[in-house]
Amino acid sequence: MAKFRSGYANVETLRKYVNGEPTNVTKDNVPGDPDYRPKYLSDQCEANTDVPDNVYSLPIEADPYAADEYASPEKSEKQESTITFNEMNKGWTSFHSYIPEFMQNINGDFYTFKDGQMWQHHADENNRNTFYGQSYNTEVGIVSNPAPSENKIFKTIEIEGDSSNWDVTVTTNLDSGHVASESFKKKEGFYYAYIRRDNEDITNTELLSVQGIGNLVLLNNLTYTFNFVPSSVSIGDTIYRAQGGSYQQIGVISEKTSQSLTVGGSTVVPNPGDFFFGAKSPIAESYGLKGYYANIKLVSNSTTPVEIFAVNAEIAKSFP
Question: What is the pTM of this model?
């Protein structure tokens, strides 16, 4: 494991070596020289004076052969993570949100350092996902892609585990949706819920939950009259005015006849001839998400142990 480097050092003088043996020939280390050695990360740094009682600082052995590895380091703008290696699987298996300065196993216990202070991990089994005094969520991400060449409808999420305390987001190449943790119902030992579309889809005119009404004939106080109101438009739906390629919300339908709709007050003042459409709640009217594949992310804020064995999705072939 690479040692943690905590400071910068400059090479001031270069010495000539012949057949691996040093000579008395030296020269200054200056930029532009073919042998120039740039500033590199070093183990030399000031000791932390704020170390609490019973915590000791140990020196780190210098590595004279690692100068090239640490030359001119640059910090990425991407999100930082701590990754862990699994010896059994021989691979990198997990990402962690906490960022320690140094890590060490001592007598079977795992310790990390943050801001010069030493922390013991797994010390409080009933307060998990808390690192350096800050709480984090647990996130599990999977991809569902059976029959990769077919367009599908992802309808449900099923969790095999001991808890339904998971908020789920589902994203396909065409749609996006979610499952709130309170939506899961226990069935035969599994937790089961329908995938709901996001509320932002309410004005998505490609969905069946959006239905055209027609052009406005007359507005009398809060009553909007049309030549015909489709039967699929119901009390509780939201109506919108379409104008110039944009949509303006009018309000929620409280009364309905075959030719009129009564809607709550609105700041929008429409004109006769304006086109209107009705939209049902995309969450309540969800039929699933279309797409070739689905990225499924589960998030839990539990601080106690939670087991999850499998995540399943009910999928049907989509027919255009």
Answer: 0.59
CA–CA distance, 177 with 171 (Å, rounded to integer)? 6
All domains in the chain, ordered by first residue: 7-70 (no CATH), 82-136 (no CATH), 139-198+286-317 (no CATH), 201-279 (2.40.10)
Rounded to whole angstroms, how far apart are CA atoms 241 and 227?
16
Stretches in the chain below the pLDDT threshold 50: 1-6, 41, 43-49, 51, 55-62, 65-73
**What pLDDT sits at residue 8?**
54
Residue 61: how many CA atoms within 13 Å on its side-chain side?
3
Give the pair of three-digit tokens for residue 158. Answer: 């099923």
- The neighbour count for residue 64, using CB atoms within 10 Å, is 5
Spatial separation of the C-alpha atoms in residues 265 and 317, rounded to whole Å: 43
Is residue 274 within 8 Å of 216, Cβ to Cβ? yes
Q: Which two tokens stand for residue 165?
A: 């305390």
DSSP 166-200: -EEEEEESS-EEEE-GGG-EEETTEEEEE-EE-GG
Bridge partners of 240? Answer: 249, 277
